[in-house]
Amino acid sequence: xxxxxxxxxxxxxxxxxxxxxxxxxxxxxxxxxxxxxxxxxxxxxxxxxxxxxxxxxxxxxxxxxxxxxxxxxxxxxxxxxxxxxxxxxxxxxxxxxxxxxxxxxxxxxxxxxxxxxxxxxxxxxxxxxxxxxxxxxxxxxxxxxxxxxxxxxxxxxxxxxxxxxxxxxxxxxxxxxxxxxxxxxxxxxxxxxxxxxxxxxxxxxxxxxxxxxxxxxxxxxxxxxxxxxxxxxxxxxxxxxxxxxxxxxxxxxxxxxxxxxxxxxxxxxxxxxxxxxxxxxxxxxxxxxxxxxxxxxxxxxxxxxxxxxxxxxxxxxxxxxxxxxxxxxxxxxxxxxxxxxxxxxxxxxxxxxxxxxxxxxxxxxxxxxxxxxxxxxxxxxxxxxxxxxxxxxxxxxxxxxxxxxxxxxxxxxxxxxxxxxxxxxxxxxxxxxxxxxxxxxxxxxxxxxxxxxxx
Length: 455
What we know:
- The chain has helices spanning 2-17, 19-34, 45-70, 73-80, 83-88, 94-128, 135-145, 160-172, 184-200, 317-343, 348-363, 365-371, 382-398, 408-412, 419-446; strands spanning 148-153, 201-202, 207-212, 224-229, 232-234, 241-248, 251-258, 263-268, 278-283, 299-301, 308-315.
- By secondary structure, it is of the alpha+beta class.
- The strands form three sheets. A four-stranded antiparallel β-sheet has the order 1-11-4-8. A four-stranded antiparallel β-sheet has the order 3-9-6-7, with no helix packed on it.
- The longest helix has 35 residues, at 94-128.
- The two termini are 32 Å apart.
């Protein structure tokens, strides 16, 4: 371990002297310190904070990724400058040298990422101390953005009994007499789905109660939680605004929502019961229409299970930021292994190119998968499709999907970045893929002639 640590310290010291490293560090510092003065978002204070968080974390991840790739110049320089020959005369194994180089890059990244995280945290609170546009902006900033909120989904009623009754009625009426390949269980499931669709549809003047369980929030006086919802609206008014209201406990909240958009409403935390159950009612009633007058025939449909959800705080913004940056660290650790493995085979320019290609594929894998679907269309011969599928599966096994290890969206939206994501990130990217890559790098470097020049 002493030899690995010695190589790591040498790598860190060498990296600090690299001009390319200095360039990326200065650029990162300028961006993080300058973004708070240029972030506007949606012209609200909360929007400015969200905009800063989004751009700062993205810039940090991108610049450190590029720096990680270019830092393999340390290994390449040892090879081309023949410094490796002097190192090999010491009691230093080749695998220790490779691990030391990787470990040094990882430590250097950890240091820069920690400093960046402190700057992001400080600048976020600097921005948050500004003047909110109004009380709604202030409430959104303190209770939605600078929080780590967990989401709970409503409980869907069980319509099995209603489906069974409807099935028996239809059976007695002979509606299935002419059906071919009739399956009783499939028909009951279809009926149950139909009842659920009707329940999700709220016609004019109707209401619906949504029940959430295990809402473990602080129910102290003055605390609030949020209901986030998005309804598909039909027959909406000419101004494209659905006028309705929500009821939570003793609180009635009138709303005027632009149709087909996501909306958030705050309700008192004391509306949650002692057992952690929350019941909220949605009333498809235009509160501006006097009693006795006809309502506008707007129909609201809550289609998905996440169309209505309750958000409540479970952690702090600081710990949420740490978890989001930990996921960035997982990606940087994997990228360092890719760059080191490439540098043990190729020259510095080629190693950088290989690592950049892997980074681009990992960062945009979802887009690449969608754009390569045509390669396995039925128009190709079967053996060609099979060969393409095997190649893509092998490629996707080696190159991870970075979007699965990204907590930025949750961080910006004030949602909790689950600790399980971080555990999965370290398990998948660090302890499995990075370990495999470093094993391959050590084996390749063990067989390499260190006196040769790579091309």
